[in-house]
Every structure is written in structure tokens, then in C-alpha cells.
Design brief:
mainly beta; Immunoglobulin-like; 13% helix; 44% strand; binds 2-acetamido-2-deoxy-beta-D-glucopyranose; transmembrane; Immune_Resp_Modulators; transmembrane helix; signal; membrane
């Protein structure tokens, strides 16, 4: 592994020197790729295609590799793939496949040679945390400066070309379609640029087309005819950067994004006979607003109390609300509450959801000093959202004692007062006896 890395860097370094000396434009670079092919299973009753993956190297500039791989040598006059893929190589996935024009033969200009095989490949560079996807169309060309006699079967159909595990193919990058936003996770009410760009190695006709699809719902959003430089269709609410469309910017602008805008957006740029498409996924992520009530509560033994946790305005629907009970300090493990009741999800006008979760309990002294935690997990947040309720419970007995004491005092006072009144009456009676 380290040796490979070392060799790679060494090669890049060496190529850099060669390049500097020659003043070439294509930087020396090697990409590890997989060559993916679909093969029909012969002999089987059903046409079940199997996917065959083989090791491939994509080489740029004067770089040499000894790897046992299918070598695609990208020739100089090509477009620059890396212009749209500016990340470190190790986070980029590279996949090469054959590209079939499905029998459509549209001549693609080629400097010098007239007769040229119609063999096409695509190479897709994907950055793993979704920073970009670049699809480049490569056409197979003859080995440059080759002394070889032209093969008798000058024209091969792309489906027929057999590629062995260590073959070297010379290719030219002629057309690139790219996006810097293959996945957009967004809050509501934002303005979004769905990035889509293209580059063709010569000036020619092209058509741009945007489509939307989500859960079986499909619609056309935009169609542009490059030959007539005319917008043929544009859906309400959709905008494009029309001043840049001919310069290779086919990006779409959506304003004030709502839940209804979630879905897949397909940007297609058709340069006959090549059809370049990227899918841009738009996902709405709105974090729940979590609140509990009451946030602290003082109870007397035997009291019944309801604790409520509201999670509001979240999207998508999946949410997990849990109640935990923890007594004392951290060393005590929390216990999940089981007697919890949930309201059905309520939908707000903007498409977000609310849910309420609550439970009741009868206070006992064991609940004194307990913290109840409402814990909400949602795709929009890395860590669960937590809200706490502190509970304190006082013993009923002490209160009762106090109550009894009060009653006794009042009783004694009453007795004393009545006694005094009685004594006074007796005294008066005795006084009224003059005779
Ligand atoms: C297209 O133009 C918009 C607005 O200037 C910009 O945000 C976007 O990155 C451009 N995309 C490409 C592919 O040039
Ligand atoms: C959902 O919760 C939010 C606050 O979290 C509140 O403002 C809104 O009224 C609630 N909607 C419904 C339908 O209960």
C-alpha cells in the first residue's frame, strides 16, 4: 500500500519534472479506476446481466505504470477532467464503462485522421462525500505515432471490441458533464443552485433538458434547443442562468425551496450522439424544535403529574422521541420510560411535522431528585436533542404532621375559649343572686 503510494507520488513527481522540461499542458497523473462492464449471461434462460469489474488505470501525461490493469492513456489534446474535480485523489471514486450510442452515428470531429473507430467510454469521477460528480466521454483513438500497419478491420463496433486485462487503449476526452452539487441537503425557504455544467471540445449543437422526479411523479422543467438558441419549455418557478448557458453553465435555480421541491433533478446535455446526464438529489432537512413542560416540578408524595415533550417543525417524518429517567449523578445509568404515549404526527402548512409525547406518573419519594430527559433523534442532527425536567418530591407525612399539629392547636384554643366563656357565664350567674 505504502509502496504504491510512494510509486504514485514518485511518478507524479517524475512526470512533473518531465512536464516542466517539455512545457506540456497535461499534468502527469494516474487514477486508479474500475472498468465496469455488463455482460449478458449466455446460456441462461433469462437475460440477467452480470456486472464485471476489472482494474483499470487512467493515465495523463507522461506517466508509466507497471500495474496489471487495463490502461487508458488520455491524449494531450483532450479536455481537462481535473478542472472540475479538484479534491484529493484518495477521496475520488473512478469508474470507467463502455458507452453505447445505440447505433446512432453522428460524426465527431477529430483532428488529423478521418477514419476513426466509434468506440466510446465514459469515466465518472465521484467525490465520496458528494462534493462533485464529473462524467467525461472518451473516444478511443489510434496509438499516436504508431508504426503499426492499420488493422484490416478498421471499423469496430463498440460492443464488439474485446478488452483484455492488461490492454492499453489510447483515448481522448471530448466531452464533459459535471456537477458540484450531486446531493443537496437544505433547510426550507432557501434559494438553491442545482449545479450542472458541460464542456465540449468543439463548437456544436447541444440540447439541455431538466427533469424532476419524485415517488412516481415526473415532470419536465426546462428544455433548451442549442441550434436555435431557444428555450422550448420552462416550468413556472424555475430559473436558469441564460447569459451563461452557451458557455457551459446549465445550472438551475430554485427559489424559496419547499417540501414539495424535494426529489431528483436530472440535468441532461445531449451532444449527438452523446447523452450526458447527472442526477441532483434535493433533500429537505429541517431540525425539530424540542420543548418540554413543565421544565421543573415540585410535587408532594402521591401527586399525579403529566410530563410533555413537543417536537415541532421537523422534516422528514422519521423521528425518534424517547424519555429517560435518571436519578442522582452521572454514575447512575438512565432508564428508558416505557409507559409513554405519542400523539399522531401532525402536519404543518409548510409540510413539516409535529409530534407530542407524554407520560403520567404518581410521585413517590423515589422520584425526588430525578431528572427526566426527552431525547429526540432526527436525520437533520448529528447528536440527539435533549431537554430536561427536574423533579422534586416532598414526603406527605411531614405535611400531615404539620396539618395535625395545626388542627390540635386550633382545637385546644377552641376548648380554652369555650371554657373561658363558660366560666364567665358561671361567674355572672353567681353574681345575679342578690337574695
Ligand atoms: C453557473 O452560474 C451560477 C451563478 O453564477 C453559479 O453559481 C454556478 O456555479 C455556475 N455553474 C457552472 C457549472 O458554471
Ligand atoms: C408545531 O409546533 C410548532 C412549534 O414547535 C408550533 O408553532 C406549531 O403551531 C405546531 N403545529 C401544529 C399543527 O400543532
Amino acid at each position: 500500500m505504502y509502496l504504491e503510494m510512494f510509486l504514485l507520488y514518485f511518478c507524479i513527481f517524475a512526470a512533473g519534472i518531465v512536464q516542466a522540461q517539455n512545457g506540456r499542458r497535461i499534468p502527469g497523473r494516474k487514477l486508479d479506476c474500475v472498468f465496469v462492464e455488463q455482460k449478458q449471461n449466455e446460456g441462461a434462460d433469462m437475460f440477467v446481466p452480470t456486472t464485471i469489474k476489472r482494474k483499470a488505470n487512467l493515465l495523463f501525461g507522461d506517466i508509466i505504470t507497471n500495474e496489471e490493469a487495463i490502461i487508458f492513456k488520455v491524449q494531450e489534446s483532450s479536455l481537462d477532467i481535473f478542472q472540475y474535480a479538484d479534491e484529493k485523489l484518495d477521496t475520488v471514486g473512478c469508474e470507467i464503462s463502455r458507452y453505447s450510442t445505440h447505433g446512432i452515428h453522428v460524426p465527431w470531429p477529430h483532428q488529423g485522421k478521418e477514419t476513426i473507430e466509434d468506440v466510446w467510454f465514459t469515466v465518472t469521477l465521484k467525490h465520496s462525500p458528494s462534493r462533485f460528480t464529473v462524467t467525461s466521454f472518451m473516444r478511443k483513438i489510434e496509438e499516436p505515432d504508431s508504426q503499426k500497419v492499420e488493422k484490416s478491420e478498421a471499423k469496430t463496433d463498440d460492443e464488439d471490441l474485446v478488452i483484455a486485462d492488461t490492454d492499453t487503449l489510447f483515448v481522448q476526452v471530448v466531452y464533459i458533464v459535471h456537477t458540484r452539487t450531486p446531493l443537496i441537503r437544505t433547510k426550507l425557504k432557501q434559494d438553491l443552485v442545482l449545479d450542472c455544467g458541460y464542456k465540449i471540445d468543439h463548437s456544436t449543437d447541444f440540447n439541455i433538458d431538466w427533469r424532476y422526479q419524485h415517488k412516481g411523479n415526473k415532470k419536465k422543467l426546462f428544455a433548451y434547443n442549442g441550434r436555435h438558441q431557444r428555450v422550448e419549455y420552462i416550468e413556472k418557478g424555475v430559473e436558469l442562468f441564460m447569459d451563461q448557458i452557451k458557455q457551459g453553465n446549465a445550472s438551475l435555480l430554485l427559489r424559496n425551496i419547499g417540501v414539495k421541491d424535494e426529489g431528483s433533478y436530472l440535468c441532461s446535455v445531449y451532444v449527438p450522439p452523446l447523452f450526458g446526464t447527472h442526477t441532483i438529489e434535493v433533500e429537505i432537512m429541517e431540525s425539530p424544535i424540542v420543548s418540554v413542560y413543565p421544565d421543573s416540578v415540585s410535587l408532594i408524595e402521591g401527586d399525579e403529574q403529566k410530563l410533555v415533550c413537543d417536537a415541532g417543525r421537523y422534516y422528514p417524518l422519521d423521528v425518534e422521541v424517547k424519555w429517560l429517567r435518571q436519578k442522582g449523578e452521572r454514575h447512575m445509568l438512565p432508564v428508558y420510560m416505557t409507559n409513554v404515549i405519542f400523539s399522531p404526527h401532525k402536519q404543518n402548512m409548510d409540510g413539516t411535522y409535529n409530534v407530542t409525547s407524554f407520560f403520567r406518573f404518581t410521585a413517590s419519594l423515589r422520584d425526588n431528585g430525578v431528572t427526566y430527559t426527552c431525547r429526540v433523534e432526527h436525520a437533520s442532527v448529528d447528536k440527539p436533542i435533549k431537554r430536561y425536567i427536574q423533579v422534586s418530591v416532598e414526603a406527605q407525612s411531614r405535611t400531615l404532621q404539620f396539618f395535625l399539629l395545626t388542627v390540635v392547636i386550633i382545637f385546644i384554643c377552641a376548648v380554652v375559649i369555650m371554657l373561658l366563656i363558660y366560666l364567665k357565664k358561671v361567674a355572672e350567674k353567681n353574681k345575679k343572686k342578690p337574695y
